Amino acid sequence: MNRFIGRITMYLIFALIGVLLWSSVSKTFFNPSLWTLEMAQFVMVAYYVLGGPYSIQLGSNVRMDLFYGEWSPRTKAWMDGITVLFLMFYLGVLLYGAVGSTAYSLGYFGTEPFSFFWDLLVTLVTEGSDAAGEKLGFLERSRSAWRPYIWPVKALLCFGVFLMLLQCLAEFFRDIARLRGVEV
C-alpha cells in the first residue's frame, strides 16, 4: 500500500510547482492570489507525510554513515531494530496528538478524541451522513484571508503517520528476520 501511495504522491511535486508558478505569475501580472501560499504548504504536507513511508520502504531515508557504513549487516540490523523502536514511539505520540488535533478541527473540544471518532463512525453507519454532520461542531478554519478548513490537512497527517507506523513495524520485523539469518 505504501508503494502505491508513494508512487502517486511523487507527482504532487508537479502540483506544488504549478501552485508556486501561479503565485509568481499572479503577483507579477495580476492581483496576488490569496490561496497560493497556504495551498503550497498543504501540498507540501501531503508530499512529505505520504512520501515518507515509501522512502523508508525503499531505504532512501537519511542515515548517519559515519559509523553505520562500516558495520556488518548483522550489526546494522541490531541498530536499525533498536532505533526503529524509538521512531515508533515518537510516531505513536505524534499520531495521538494528530488525532486530538483533528478532532478539535472538527469541533470536538473534549478530552477523548478516539471516542469522538468512534461515535461519529457509528452514527455515520447507522443513521447516515446527516446525523453524523450534526455531531460535528464548529469547523476550524485558517486565520489567513483565504480561510480554508483545516481538518482535511490534519486528517491527512493522521493517515500519513499511521502509514509510517505500519512501515516502521514492517522494517522492525525485517530487522528481526535479518538477525535470525532469514533474508526477506
Structure, explained:
With 184 residues, the protein is an all-alpha fold. It has 2 domains: 1-62; 68-184, no CATH class. The protein has 8 helices and no strands. Helix 2 runs antiparallel to helix 3 (36-58). The chain is flat.
Oligomer: single chain
The dominant shape is flat
Count the domains. Answer: 2
Unreliable parts: none
Helix and strand string, N-terminal first?
Answer: HHHHHHHH
Query: How is the biggest beta sheet arranged?
Result: none
Q: How many H/I helices? A: 8
Rounded radius of gyration (Å): 21 Å
What is the straight-line distance between the termini? 18 Å
Beta content: under 5%
Give me the secondary-structure category: mainly alpha
Helix content: over 70%
The total count of strands amounts to 0
Average predicted local confidence, pLDDT: 91
